[in-house]
Amino acid sequence: MKKTRKKKDRPGEPWHLIDVDELLTAESDEDIVELPLEKIDPFEDHPFKVLDDEMMQDLAGSIKRNGILTPVMVRTKQNGRYEMISGHRRMRAAQIMELDTIPAIIRDMDDIDAVIVMVDANLKREKLLPSEMAYAFRMRYEAIKEKAGTPGVSGRILNGRTATKAELMKSPDPKRFCIRSDIEMAAAVGMSRGQLQRYLRLTELIPEFLEMVDRETLPLMTAVDISFIGEQAQRYLCDYIRENGMVKTYQVTALRKYLNNARHISKKDMFTLLGNSITGRGPVRAITLTEQKLQMYFSANYSLNDMEKIIFRLLDRWKVEEKTAGIKRKAGGKNAYEST
Predict the structure, then answer these.
(1) 19 partner at 20 to 30 Å CA-CA among 109, 148, 173, 306?
(2) Domain boundary among 185, 204, 223
(3) 198 and 264: one domain?
């Protein structure tokens, strides 16, 4: 069985990533076997959705008329089962047609090559959701990072392969040359490094925001900004959107700026901050009430939640009194707090 991991003959020499088209193309000496569907498992953490939609029904109809023309690709597992590398949609269509077996090519490949081939094969599909691309790119990116080489004595290693003379000449330090994994991957998938990094950031979003991006109700750039906010703050922000319809980019910017200093924000403060961002009243200012200060007014029997309720209740009363005093000052022309 042909190995997919190519190495140099001499110890210590780098080995390179196999071209995906090479991996996906059946060799003349490779056998196509009929494998029982029940023995094939989906790829672990497969990032692409396999939906029973209209396109799936069309694929099932084609299989019914013509059979499966292109074999799937699998690799063996230690327990005698097989893991699908390329062909999840064909396998699902075969299940819909109640087939027992599927034509398959069995390849021997390590975990890293399997991830790269699985992702690249699916990237050839015409339409992919942003969430699918995000997690697929993340898996491929981590695989390349793991496989990437580091500069050796000669400093000529470029992410697992030997750097060309032209690449060395472009390096500010040719003796210690190494291109970043994201640059190499961006070139491999046909986009800029900035575009790739934006998709990678989407994996930091909570599922609710990812769904909004997929439905195109949340702009990609706004989603990228949100991805820099912690999970709990994202959930508060999601609640804000449910109540107010949407959030603007400048509101997210104001929130990120606040969190860079405070590191934490309550749901109530976040709603106030986002509202103030719209009206131009500026960000919420943080006031710290230490436990020592609070003990001057509250006994140990009061919980933090009880103290907060009392403080806000007193502030509401003060606000009413302040408004009344302001009316008196305006009417009487003198300080409402003066003794009569």
Answers:
(1) 173
(2) 204
(3) no
User: What is the Cα–Cα distance from 1 to 334, expressed in whole angstroms?
Assistant: 97
Longest CA–CA separation in the chain, Å: 107
State the DSSP code for 15: -
310 and 217 fall within a common domain: no
Q: Determine contact, residues 192/223, Cβ cutoff 8 Å.
A: no
H or E element at residue 35:
strand 33-36
What letter would DSSP give residue 219? -
- Do residues 232 and 248 share a domain? yes
The answer to whether residues 81 and 182 belong to one domain is no
Structural domain span for residue 187? 128-204
Same domain, 7 and 103: yes
The H-or-E segment that residue 242 falls in is helix 231-244
Q: What is the pLDDT of residues 76-110, one digit of tens each?
A: 988 889 999 988 999 999 999 999 999 999 988 88
Same domain, 61 and 3: yes
Model pLDDT, residue 3 = 35
Contact partners, residue 306, CB within 8 Å, separation at least 6: 298
- 199 and 105 housed in the same domain: no
CB 106 within 8 A of CB 1: yes
For residue 103, the cross-strand partners are 34
Instruction: Tell me the average pLDDT of the chain.
Output: 77
Task: Decide if 37 contacts 76 (C-beta within 8 A).
Answer: no
Question: Which of these three, 138, 169, 204, is where a domain ends?
Answer: 204
Give the number of other Cβ atoms within 10 Å of residue 8's Cβ.
11
Higher pLDDT, 282 or 5: 282
φ, ψ for residue 306 (rounded to 5)? -65, -45
Quick: pLDDT tens for 230-264: 999 999 999 999 988 888 889 999 999 999 888 78
The Cβ-side half-sphere exposure at 81, using a 13 Å CA radius, reads 10
Q: Does residue 139 carry a pLDDT above 80?
A: yes
- How far is the C-alpha of 271 from the C-alpha of 264, rounded, in Å? 13
Domain count, the chain: 4
Q: Is residue 212 part of a domain?
A: yes
